[in-house]
Amino acid sequence: MIQTPDIQRPPKEIVEGLQRIGSATASGELRRMGIRDSQIRGPVGWTPGIAVAGPALTLQFMPLREDYYKEEEYGDPETQLHRHVLYHTQPGDMVVVDARGDLASGVFGEMMLTFFKGRGGLGVVIDGCIRDYPSAKDLGLGLWIKGVTPNYHTQTGIFPYAVNVPIACGGRLVMPGDIIVADEDGVVVVPVGLAADLLGHAREHAEWEVFSKMKLEQGGDLRKYYPLSKEGWAEYEIWRKEQNK
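Above: the chain sequence. Below: its structure as tokens.
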């Protein structure tokens, strides 16, 4: 019997807070915290309007070698590790897949994604493809992928090799349990050890941006209000105190 490790999930309130701040703020604040570039490149959103955050279940593919992996699409399904990563799904989880940028194999199809959705999964980030997109796009999942294909997961040149191990996805290291923030701006990896501090910084950033946007809408000087100059910051502090009365 195949056994694969589960992940440790961060507190729900941290994940929900990161979802509200979005990928752009998360990326910018991580840069100020020392993580130069946290964006997963390659996979892009195929489900407009969906914005999610959740801990990463990870799946690693390797180049297919026929003497090592010979299973057909429906041959002995329990040996197929793309199923096993989904078995770990808890409500709020994301699945992140290193599919080696392959454009010829569909990592998941409609049935697998339906199972994932039914278990409470939020979305998938795949450095590769899915299949059954005409049906999958209507499941309500977030899909950040490189493309679509009619082929199944091991039909061409890759096969699933490991579950919940460190992976490279779109040029970024993703550790099992890292928090993925994904929306129409893109996908950001938040190291779980930095998540609480990031959320604190991001909340402050989001608050002063509300003030800045208000001033800019009123015709305020960009040089004064974005980013806040010393004079602009003084005005912001007064405004914030007034809001908290």
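The chain has two domains: 12-191, 197-243.
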